[in-house]
Inverse folding.
């Protein structure tokens, strides 16, 4: 860890972290949608930090934001702004992270990056604290990667079941909120909803598309619709989001040959990703045992009583931290397979919370 001016930590010979006093945290991307959630989390959670610096692009420098009950001035992203930081959280686009993560690491900081820039790098651990937190201790490049928000919506629940039965195959369909496309995605959905509200649109081919005219950042209208495409077009007709879900699940669970198939769908929801999951295991499963595993898994809430109308929906779980699981069923044709539905807030556990949990684990030495 950083032991220069302003730094409070060091690395032991065994690679674990030691601190003298409270460490310094730098949050890069503090003014974005995730940054806003992150500031709230840092204000709500146990105060393990000394100085917390809020850093953003030059155009946001000088803005004052509330953090831990005080007004904190936003700094421009420069090398000097990172001096003496023990941990740096990056919530920035891939290209910005690729440039600045090595700079921060070269100054002695542990970097926790939420972009896709380092997730597939074999020298960068991809960490979900409830599942593989121990991997954060070995970081040759000084960087720890945060999984994608879709992966994080389901991986804690899937990981708990895998620990008991051994995962053999995953088939998933995602239902992704527009906030996964940033503030522009939210703005476009609200704009389109205003255009179609109170009309008879949605009853004739193409009438919604003609009414909203502008669909970017989505390839089709999102109001009164679902769009079976998220991310960028990749090889063989798959999208980058679908490939990411496959690759990240394998890496987090340390199952490099796991069979994973995903179809990613964008839906007219502001915040909260959902997934329908078909999970096949190495041994026979039961709903009762699955309920017990999920009810006791860290970071998971079981909400599964369909007779009473109890199952998770994004509108109900938005603003909460756990992964919510319901509609748990054993496959009628396979005693080793479970079907279930998961929801999670893509801005909290799906982004800000997981990075905070990683950072707290780093400074605690756990």
């Amino acid at each position: 860890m950083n032991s220069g001016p302003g730094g409070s930590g060091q690395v032991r010979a065994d690679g674990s972290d030691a601190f003298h006093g409270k460490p310094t945290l730098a949050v890069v991307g503090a003014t974005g949608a995730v940054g806003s959630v992150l500031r709230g989390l840092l204000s709500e959670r146990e105060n393990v930090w000394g100085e917390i610096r809020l850093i953003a692009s030059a155009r946001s420098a000088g803005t004052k934001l509330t953090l831990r009950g005080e007004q904190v001035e936003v700094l421009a992203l420069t090398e000097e702004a990172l001096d003496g930081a023990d941990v740096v959280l990056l919530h920035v686009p891939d290209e910005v992270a690729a440039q600045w993560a090595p700079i921060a690491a070269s100054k002695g900081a542990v970097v926790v990056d939420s972009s896709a820039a380092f997730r597939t790098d074999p020298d960068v651990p991809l960490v979900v604290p409830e599942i593989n937190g121990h991997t954060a201790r070995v970081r040759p490049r000084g960087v720890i990667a945060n999984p994608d928000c879709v992966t994080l919506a389901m991986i804690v629940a899937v990981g708990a079941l895998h620990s008991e039965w051994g995962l053999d195959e995953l088939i998933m369909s995602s239902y992704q909120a527009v906030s996964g496309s940033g503030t522009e995605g939210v703005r476009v959905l609200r704009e389109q909803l205003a255009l179609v509200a109170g009309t008879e649109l949605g009853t004739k081919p193409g009438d919604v598309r003609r009414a909203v005219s502008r669909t970017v950042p989505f390839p089709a209208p999102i109001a009164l619709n679902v769009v079976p495409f998220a991310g960028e077009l990749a090889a063989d007709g798959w999208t980058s989001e679908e490939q990411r879900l496959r690759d990240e699940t394998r890496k987090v669970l340390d199952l490099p040959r796991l069979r994973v198939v995903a179809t990613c769908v964008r839906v007219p929801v502001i915040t909260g990703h959902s997934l329908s999951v078909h999970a096949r295991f190495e041994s026979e499963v039961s709903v009762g045992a699955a309920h017990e595993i999920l009810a006791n898994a860290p970071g998971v809430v079981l909400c599964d009583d369909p007779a009473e109308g109890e199952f998770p929906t994004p509108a109900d779980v938005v603003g909460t931290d756990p992964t919510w699981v319901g509609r748990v069923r054993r496959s009628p044709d396979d005693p080793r397979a479970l079907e279930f539905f998961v929801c999670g807030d893509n801005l909290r556990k799906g982004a800000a919370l997981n990075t905070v949990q990683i950072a707290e684990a780093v400074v605690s030495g756990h």
Residues 112 and 144 are 5 Å apart (CA to CA). The longest helix spans residues 149-165. DSSP finds eleven helices and 16 strands in the chain.
